[in-house]
């Protein structure tokens, strides 16, 4: 994959914003985010036909802005709507066991530390998401913050493989992520909850 797509990777779902999800996504795309992941988790997560409809509309939006559209965890949904890829965690399906549809798609894998890296099969993985770099409330199961040093350690282990930083990233600390080996940053709340999404995105760009 083109690692430039990871520059400003926006992740959002219905539980991450009080606004209409499609409105938030369109504002973020228009402001310049370079990749989008639909992550439907939490008490207000869409399901069934509603989820399928929303994902299909977001796919159309991403296509119109020529931004890769990734689905979190739900590889069946990703295949059904023709998403550009899927992002999976350590407790999800093994990357090599994904359906053939994903052979030429983007596959992201969460890898938080050296132990997880050692147990991960990266043969089909396009990029890894590493973190949480800083403490975060956006993911209840995020784990302990690894700090920028954790990114630097991971970069030494993975060489040139694309890597994106995630977790508690703000306009005040994102440069430390890039300076310690990340090719880009994942943002959830700093964009999803921003009163002015365009201004929020531009602070990272």
UniProtKB/TrEMBL annotation:
InterPro entries in alphabetical order: Aldolase_TIM, ThiamineP_synth_sf, ThiamineP_synth_TenI, TMP_synthase
HAMAP family: TMP_synthase
EC number(s) stated in the UniProt entry for this protein: 2.5.1.3
Cofactor(s) required for function per UniProt: Mg(2+)
Family: Belongs to the thiamine-phosphate synthase family.
Keyword Transferase among UniProt keywords: yes
One Pfam family in the UniProt entry: TMP-TENI
Residues involved in 4-amino-2-methyl-5-(diphosphooxymethyl)pyrimidine binding: 37-41, 72, 110, 139
Name used for this protein in its record: Thiamine-phosphate synthase
Top-level division of the source organism's lineage: Bacteria
Residues annotated for 2-[(2R,5Z)-2-carboxy-4-methylthiazol-5(2H)-ylidene]ethyl phosphate binding in this entry: 136-138, 168, 188-189
Alphabetical keyword list: Magnesium, Metal-binding, Thiamine biosynthesis, Transferase
Positions that bind Mg(2+): 73, 92
Keyword Chloroplast: no
Cited function: Condenses 4-methyl-5-(beta-hydroxyethyl)thiazole monophosphate (THZ-P) and 2-methyl-4-amino-5-hydroxymethyl pyrimidine pyrophosphate (HMP-PP) to form thiamine monophosphate (TMP).
Annotated pathway: Cofactor biosynthesis; thiamine diphosphate biosynthesis; thiamine phosphate from 4-amino-2-methyl-5-diphosphomethylpyrimidine and 4-methyl-5-(2-phosphoethyl)-thiazole: step 1/1
GO molecular function, one term: thiamine-phosphate diphosphorylase activity
Gene that encodes the chain: thiE
Organism whose genome encodes this protein: Salinicoccus siamensis
